[in-house]
Amino acid sequence: MHLALKLLLALVPKDKAIHILLAGILLPVFLICVLFSGPVVVHERVPMVSQEQAMLYFNAAKRVSNSTSSPCDKGVIVNWQQVIAIDAVLLNQDFSNANEDRAYQLARRFVEKIGECTHCQGTGEKRTCSTYPVYRLKTIDEVMDELGFSQEEKERVMQFLAADLSFLLNISGVPPGWVPQTGPWAWPVPGNYSISSGFGPRIDPFTGDVGKHDGIDIPDVIGTRAVAARKGVVVHCSWSSGYGNLVELDHGDGIHTLYGHLSAYSVIKGQVVEMGQEIGRIGSSGKSTGPHLHFEVRVNGVPVNPLTFYGGS
């Protein structure tokens, strides 16, 4: 800031009075630009929507998804995050106009009827058959093309989807500004203490049902370093259903840590890693709604809240 001010002053006559006057005018303007540059970035990367408004889109996507299933076809699942990202652009971030019907109609754009299937019950004279529609899930690019989005608008949508937006629905379990207590344990994503989904009961971002979350989710951009929480041995380093690309470490005394949804591995099975050593890169592989690290701690095979090891609840 000091250097920028000096450069500005260098462009004007070297009169002390003028310098003072310009400093009084330019410095406040410069400070305002600096102060508001951060919120602008947040505004561009995260939809400015309340939890209540986000639930409108979540429920709409679930309602549409449920309507596509039948006794003879499992149907499709509409990604609520894609619905909300598109409407963030349509509404220019003004979600005061969001409502249940609007969210539902937008979610319906993601499904298309492609045929029918028949389901029969009973035998003989009591046999009855019913016909049900079969749907396919459109890609987000198809929906954006149908809406006539420009390339710039498409890029804004994808910018919103670069982060896992599930934090809009779930309570992380930590107060604002929480910082982990490190010592015997290193935080798995250095410098990033945000948690989009905590340990325990939560709304499943795919099904909408209440389930149990065996770890915590730390959202970050793809390619961010994930590190070992403690010294240990790599006992798993490959694809695992649900977890996607998974690294599991054995720390002894029955304690294991798991690092899921990775985009790349930095270790191999059997390798000994030190606390804080990189084990992989954050991604969105497996059952994931956006880039984040799923961090899990198991004691004698039983998942426990990872935050208990960092001074959290």
UniProtKB/TrEMBL annotation:
Tell me where in this chain the M23ase beta-sheet core domain is found: 212-306
Q: Which UniProt keywords apply?
A: Membrane, Transmembrane, Transmembrane helix
The record's listing under InterPro entries reads: Cell_wall_metabolism_enzyme, Dup_hybrid_motif, M23ase_b-sheet_dom
Q: Where is the chain membrane-spanning? A: 20-42
Is Ion transport one of the keywords?
no
**Per UniProt, what is one GO molecular function of this protein?**
metalloendopeptidase activity
Name under which the protein is recorded: Metalloendopeptidases
Q: Which organism is it from?
A: Desulfocucumis palustris
The lineage, from the top, is:
Bacteria, Bacillati, Bacillota, Clostridia, Eubacteriales
